[in-house]
Amino acid sequence: MEPVKHTYEEIVLQNTELQIQLEEANDTIDAIRNGQVDALIVKGDDGHQLYTLKTADQTYRVFIEKMNEGAVTLNRDCVILYSNSRFAAMMNLPLEKVIGFKFETFVPELSANKFKELIDTGWNEDCKGEILLTNKDFQLTPCLMSCTTLDLDEGTALSLILTDLTHQKEAEWELKVKNDQLLEAQNAAEKLNYELEDTVRERTKDLLISREHFKLLSNNIPQMSWTNLPGGEVDFYNQQWFNYTGRRYGETAGWGWQQIVHPDDLALTMDKYMTALKTGNIFEVENRYRRWDGTYRWHLNRAVPLKDEKNEIIFWVGTATDIEDQKKEMERKDEFIGIASHELKTPLTSLKGYLQLITSYKKEEIPPVVKQYIEKASVAINKLQRLINDLLDVSKIQAGRLEYAIGEVDLSNLIKNSIENANHIYPQYEFDNQAQPGLRVEGNAERLEQVLMNFINNAVKYSQVNKQIILKTETQDHTVRVSVTDFGIGLSDAQREKIFERFYRVEDKKFMASGLGMGLYISTEIINNHNGKIGVESELGKGATFYFELPRVL
Ligand code: ADP
């Protein structure tokens, strides 16, 4: 087709016409928006069409124009006949790029089906649903689309109200995230709660079982037993306690047990009890408890503390063992020892006298071999005498009758005498005198020499290979220490704690030497009676240093 040629004048005319049309169109749009017109003409595919709002009034249109929602009306072909400025703003376009365009232009592929479905329904009945809209920059906006048909003079149009759900969705999303977090926290808390409940249930069960175990155990031992708090109050007694005392729980709980202790034993019991509570060391004391019938029986009390991981005492577990029968046996034995040693002493003294009588004969009258026998008999008699003396001492200690006179004792003399004596009895040993001269103490020289001789006898007995023995004095402030050191078998830590007890002997067959385990017990009593201290320093296999310390006379 030949292109139509226009003259310059024609083109100017055409341009002027078009400008007028444009202005008219703009005026129309403004007029509609401001409610000045009730009808509008739209140029569709099949020419111009005139649309008139049937019940339109100005207020209504202004209202729509000012609405926060997008409002559009569509014809059957989904062409936008009317749009308020809010919808155009939502699409980020001027109104003229919205009106007259197909609504699908603003519907992304994602929402195409949903949109179609809503529109189809909307022509028949009111409906609403969520769809996405896309603007010219391809930004998606979630919207709630409400459809209602509108009766216009020219036919029915479909009115759409579009509510921007962006903020709502964001808020919903935030709410959902928060909700999820809350749910998660709730689940975690619930789980923790269940775990906690399980643990508590387990612990309670454990506690119940262990308490039942403890009760079963404590009610089925022959001893009386109790538990007390760190402060000293008793909070549990076993059945034996109630059987023995004949009291009810409330009567002896807390500190009530003091009424059961024999009045003569109460001070010592309290002293040991309070010391144990203060130091956390094992409590041990012998005392008499009053039975339900009013009689008293001796008991050995022991309590051990139960400590937590921080070494703090939780409570004490104590037992009281009836030792009345053992005590009686012991007393009978002590009595027997006392009588027996006394009885033995008399014939021994006469034996000694007769031997002396025999030795007083002239040398030539006694055959040499008989003289030898006499010497051997003398040694045996001396040994027997020492043994009987020790036995007598033990029974005197038991009866509380170990008595002697007190005077001033020169220690260097004491040591010198003991060494002379020892040299005589043990000529094959070397005694090293390291005593300072002029040291004096208050005491009984005979008894102190007895202690020193006991140390020396032991040093010899338990040091068969190395024959060197050192006797030494050392001073410190107001005390003096006298010690006897040997380089023999020595003692272990456990043995060291026990050797000062009555009749205790180290039970090691390898090193067994004759003796009854009385020497150190008597020595301890003597030194205690002198207000002194007795002790030993030793290492197994390396020898031992036995010592006593006494206040110095200055
Ligand atoms: P014993 O008559 O048995 O020697 P003691 O009371 O004098 O009685 O001593 C008690 C125990 O102490 C001994 O049986 C011995 O085991 C141990 N003992 C004493 N002195 C020493 C020492 N110097 N070296 C090693 N062990 C010793």
UniProtKB/TrEMBL annotation:
Taxonomic superkingdom: Bacteria
Protein name in UniProt: histidine kinase
Catalysed reaction equations from the record: ATP + protein L-histidine = ADP + protein N-phospho-L-histidine
PANTHER family documented for this protein: PAC DOMAIN-CONTAINING PROTEIN, PHYTOCHROME-LIKE PROTEIN CPH1
UniProtKB keywords: Coiled coil, Kinase, Membrane, Phosphoprotein, Transferase, Two-component regulatory system
UniProt keyword Glycosyltransferase, yes or no: no
SMART domains per the UniProt record, alphabetical: HATPase_c, HisKA, PAC, PAS
Domain PAC: 283-335
Coiled-coil blocks: 8-35, 168-202
EC annotation from Swiss-Prot or TrEMBL: 2.7.13.3
UniProt source species: Mucilaginibacter pineti
SUPFAM superfamilies membership: ATPase domain of HSP90 chaperone/DNA topoisomerase II/histidine kinase, Homodimeric domain of signal transducing histidine kinase, PYP-like sensor domain (PAS domain)
PROSITE patterns cross-referenced by the UniProt entry: HIS_KIN, PAC
